[in-house]
Amino acid sequence: MSEQVIVGTIGRAHGLRGQVTVRPQTDSVEQRFAAGATVRTSDRTLTVTGHSWLNGVLLVAFDGVGDRTSAEALRGLELWAEGIAEPTEPDEYADLVLIGMDVVDPDGAALGTLTAVQHNPAQDLLVVRTPDGDRMVPFVEALVPEVDLLNRRIVVIPIPGLLTEVDDAD
Fold it and tell me: What is 81-105 written as a DSSP string?
């Protein structure tokens, strides 16, 4: 059996027919939540019957979850699936490989920890947890010149305002 990876977390019920919101934690939403796909929770396997998007929120329906009460019982559960192959393109990384890496400046000073990768049409964003809260960094070479898989660190150019508050010198 291959490695199990987290692909999402169930949120609240949506509507009366058993749909739930899911916070995806995968860059393969269309594959992971396609009709017929299976995901595991801590105690059972769920089969996806369909998914859709509503105002940027992923809605998923599962076989055997046909009403709001059943859907609410799933709230907060992590969804797991078998791992998929690592990306093969240069400078392309699986989210799960990156999450948890230290984020440092070019001199190696700690800036935070990578907690998520958001995939957007224009570019991906790295979500970095800093002492001041979560910050988003565009995942582009000009700002992220190095991803060091061996040492589990991501180098980010610390432009003022990107990972820290900008001081107003008025």
Answer: EE--PPP-STT---HHHHTT-EEE-
- 95-155 topology per CATH: SH3 type barrels. (2.30.30)
Q: Encoding tokens for residue 155? A: 């180098």
pLDDT value for 1: 43
CATH class of the region 4-82: mainly beta
| pLDDT for the residue 99 | 84
Q: Which pLDDT value is given to residue 123?
A: 86
**Mean of the per-residue pLDDT values for the chain?**
86
Verdict on whether the full-model pTM lies above 0.70: no
Q: Which residue has the higher pLDDT, 6 or 130?
A: 130
The dihedral through the CA atoms of 6, 77, 58, 163 has a sign that is negative
Q: How far apart are CA 144 and CA 135, in angstroms?
A: 14
